[in-house]
Amino acid sequence: MEGNGGFRALNEKTLVDYIKSTPSLVSILGNQVEDLDIKEVGDGNLNFVYIVVGSAGSMVVKQALPYIRCIGESWPMTKERAYFEAVTLKEHGRFCPAHVPEVYHFDRTMSLIAMRYLKPPHIILRKGLIAGIEYPLLAEHISDYMAKTLFHTSLLYHSTTEHRRAVAEFCGNVELCRLTEQVVFSDPYKISQYNRWTSPDLDGDAEAVRQDDTLKLEVAKLKAMFCERAQALVHGDLHTGSIMVTLDSTQVIDPEFAFYGPMGFDIGAFLGNLILAFFSQDGHADQANRESYKKWILGTIADTWNLFQKKFTSLWNEHKDGDGEAYLAAIYNSPSLLLLAQTSYMKDLFHDSLGFGAAKMIRRIVGVAHVEDFESIVDAKRRASCERRALEFAKKLLKERHAYHTIDQVISIIHEFNQ
């Protein structure tokens, strides 16, 4: 496929020629480009992803296409998303190099990124959760990633001048933001061409979402926040399919949806997907007794928020006299006043995170793109039962999120829907 301005979609064969003509990539492969093993592994909704392994080096090459891969050319999509992904990987990598893969090469014309290959035994976190694998460092690592990337790209760290400049740059990622607006905050609440669910079992449940006026009013507030609030450089799609793990490594990938938006959108996406994993466990119970694993997931949910809150506040204290202009030291000049400001800020962020997490859960059950946690449950009635409990919990959480003040209260409500 030839595109405008020199873009062409690569395949396993033509990628070899591209690599050979790009010195920086030849260098990564130790100048040994004969007998490269190239495998296309993109199982996502949008892009082609190639693993390139040579005798002296390896990499992952990701290329964005001018349409949504899982639907086809009938749904065009800007390939410029690769630019925003590359910039975000570099920016987030600057603040949290331990949990973001290094970018080796970016070609804007070709919408192509080459980056570090996360070798086996790294797997997608979602697959590990389906398999019932416990990751003892997950909460520690993800809380670290979220605290560092969100704090350092916010007005708690930036001057308003540099913040506005960065916001203006990322306003260019408008198409992917509009896609999120559509599939998360709009489509599940109306009749939409691409919506689907476990039918006929959840027909009534999907209809109930579309008829729930209170739910619609609450999701409208979240949509407004998503569109209007440029709080920090968020990953924009921080679910368990965008994280690769081993028992001692956690790597965040695929930030092509990145933009300056509400911090709670990232935090909620991660927590919401862990809650989906929790409710899916009964569908996988034939593999083993999952009760102890469900406890581990709930513990990880609690630890992630509690650690995030602690680390984020520590960064704030550390940089309270820095360039950040949200809370100027000359004004918030006593420990008690700063503590009041932090308490109020974190309370709002907690409620934002719960709301966005709930909205992300709902769209994964009655919207266009579902999760393998549920989809891999073969028995439809069993799957529907798991999905219904997750959906009912998410609706309650979205509508009543301001009533909760600790993550432990949220865990208690999850238990109520686990009967």
Helical run tally: 15
Q: Approximately how much helix is present in the residues? A: 40-55%
Strand order of the largest sheet: 1-2-3-7-6
Low-pLDDT windows of residues: none
Shape: globular
Let me know the number of strands: 12
Span between termini = 52 Å
List the helices and strands and how they pair.
Layout (H helix, E strand, L loop, with lengths): L11 H9 L2 H6 L8 E4 L6 E7 L4 E7 L2 E2 L3 E5 L4 H15 L7 E5 L4 E4 L7 E2 H7 L6 H15 L7 H11 L3 H12 L17 H9 L1 H16 L3 E3 L8 E3 L4 E3 L6 E3 L1 H18 L10 H28 L16 H32 L5 H4 L4 H21 L6 H10 L3
Antiparallel strand pairs: 1-2, 2-3, 3-7, 4-5, 6-7, 8-10, 9-12, 10-11
Helix pairs in contact: 3-5, 5-11, 10-11, 10-12, 10-14, 12-14
Protein name: S-methyl-5-thioribose kinase
Pfam families: APH
EC number: 2.7.1.100
